[in-house]
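Input (structure):
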């Protein structure tokens, strides 16, 4: 299989990861439009995920198992705290807007991550170099595109009438579009903070399934405390055999366990840069599924803003690739110099 297998398997894996993320948004949007509370969705889905992940983490990390110190557990809790609010903001943002907007705004994650990485000194910023300039400009362009998507809805450029009018109303009711955009932008910022913190945790505790288990477990506890305050209606806690139950199970099994595990595997096989390149694919999935299956209208603002965000995103990625190439060239120059010094000493 060789090189083809090394490339094709992570490629297929990341396509599945992005597809499951978008479908999770759509299923959750349907359930919340049908009355499911976003707080209850976060609580139940993460609790089920934790139950599934506990035996898996014990099975796959039997030996050697990294020690669980108090410091590591505190980092797990902080990671879960960030992830909990990211999920709450994300579900609320999709509820107030649409899965299409949610997919477009998630492309802010690479830009925010780059900015935070520079602040945390994980990335170097040298504006005299084309690579650093491209990353900086790309980050600003992505943020500008997010503002276009949020504040300029524009006329519909495509609409599907394949579903009934009631189904169309569920997916196209976007009276709080700007609020939804702000919530989704907050989710992207929290997701970037989550990536930065996770990178530091993985250096000290590389057991991926254990991290994922504690992540979902602590989110369950945090979201329970929040839900008891935010959700006062007792009937909201009862799940029926409808789309609400489907959304909880889909989010728990597909949205959390499968997606996160597969994404982690792809990062190990092909690296984070390769995996992050698939983020814009979410916009394509959301546009196609929203227009064809959900009867969602494709607005001009979403299309223009998404193009701007993707352009900025790929500018950042080009800068990263150029930076890696510059690093390889610099190393290749140093090696012959060291060899010459060795020859002279001999």
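Output (sequence):
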């Amino acid at each position: 299989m060789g090189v083809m297998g090394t490339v094709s398997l992570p490629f297929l894996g990341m396509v599945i990861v992005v597809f499951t993320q978008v479908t999770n948004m759509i299923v959750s949007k349907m359930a919340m439009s049908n009355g499911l509370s976003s707080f209850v969705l976060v609580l139940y889905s993460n609790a089920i995920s934790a139950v599934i992940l506990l035996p898996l983490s014990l099975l796959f990390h039997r030996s050697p198992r990294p020690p669980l110190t108090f410091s590591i557990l505190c980092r797990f809790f902080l990671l879960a705290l960030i992830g909990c609010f990211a999920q709450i903001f994300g579900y609320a943002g999709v509820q107030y807007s649409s899965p299409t907007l949610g997919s477009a705004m998630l492309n802010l994650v690479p830009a925010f991550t780059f900015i935070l990485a520079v602040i945390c000194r994980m990335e170097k910023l040298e504006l005299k170099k084309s690579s650093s300039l491209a990353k900086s400009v790309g980050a600003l362009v992505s943020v500008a595109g997010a503002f276009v998507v949020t504040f300029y809805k524009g006329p519909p450029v495509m609409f599907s009438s394949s579903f009934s009018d009631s189904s169309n109303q569920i997916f196209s009711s976007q009276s709080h579009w700007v609020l939804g955009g702000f919530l989704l932008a907050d989710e992207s910022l929290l997701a970037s903070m989550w990536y930065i913190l996770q990178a530091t945790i993985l250096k000290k505790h590389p057991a991926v399934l254990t991290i994922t288990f504690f992540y979902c477990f602590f989110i369950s506890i945090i979201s329970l405390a929040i839900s008891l305050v935010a959700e006062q209606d007792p009937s909201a806690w009862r799940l029926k055999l409808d789309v609400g139950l489907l959304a909880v199970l889909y989010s728990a099994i597909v949205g959390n366990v499968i997606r996160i595990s597969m994404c982690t595997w792809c990062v190990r096989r092909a690296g984070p840069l390769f995996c992050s390149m698939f983020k814009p694919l979410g916009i394509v999935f959301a546009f196609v599924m929203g227009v064809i299956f959900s009867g969602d209208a494709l607005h001009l603002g979403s299309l223009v803003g998404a193009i701007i965000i993707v352009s900025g995103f790929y500018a950042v990625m080009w800068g990263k690739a150029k930076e890696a190439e510059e690093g390889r060239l610099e190393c290749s120059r140093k090696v012959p110099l060291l060899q010459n010094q060795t020859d002279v000493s001999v």
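Notes: The chain is about 80% helix and 0% strand. The mean pLDDT is 78.
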